[in-house]
Amino acid sequence: MTQDPHKMFDEWMDEAKKAETDDPTAMALATASKQAFPCVRMMLLKGHTKDGFVFFTNLGSRKGHELLENPVATLLFHWKKLRRQVRIEGAATLISDEEADAYFATRARKSQLGAWASEQSRPLPARDVFEKRIADIEARYEGKDVPRPPYWTGFRVSPIRMEFWNDREFRLHERELFTLNDGRWQSEFLYP
Predict the structure, then answer these.
(1) What residues are designated binding site for FMN?
(2) Is 171 a catalytic residue?
(3) What's the whole-model pTM score?
(4) Domain 5-105+150-190 class in CATH
(5) Which one of 5, 22, 61, 161 has the fewest CB atoms closer than 10 angstroms to its CB?
C-alpha cells in the first residue's frame, strides 16, 4: 500500500491522460460562501506538485470571492472510462504573481484577451457587449504582448485529505483515504 497520495495521483492522472479523450485534467471545484452556501463548477487543473493543485481564475468571479472569504476547497476528478475518482480537500492560497505571470504568458492570445474583457460572473446585458469589449481590448494590445490582468491569478489547494475511489461490481467499491497528520500521510480504507 502506497503512503504517498501525490505519487498515486500522478500515476492515476497518467493513466487518465491515456484513457480519457476529453480533458482528463477537468475537475469539479467546490467552494462555499461565508454563509456556508456551497457552489461547484468545472475547472481545469494546471499544475500539481507535493505543495498542491493549481488552477486559475478571475478574482472577481464567485469562486474568487468565495476562496478569498473562505479559503478552503474540495476538488473532484472523475475519470469515467477508468471508473475512478479522486476527491481532494484542503486550504486554498493565492499563488505568486510570478507563477501567475508565467502561466498567463503560455495562454492562447484570445484567452488572454478574454481575461481582460470578461467581468466574470457579473450580469451581461447582451453577448455583443462582451464581443465589443474583446474587440476593444484586441485593438488596445495590437502588436503587443498581453499582460496578465491584476485580478486574474491562480490558487493552490494544499490537500489535507485525498480519497481515491475505484468502482467495483455490485457497488462494492474500493475507497482509500489519505489524511495528513503532523506532516505525515496516513491511509485507511473506507467502506463503500
Answers:
(1) 41-46, 56-57, 62-63, 85, 120-121, 165, 175
(2) yes
(3) 0.94
(4) mainly beta
(5) 22
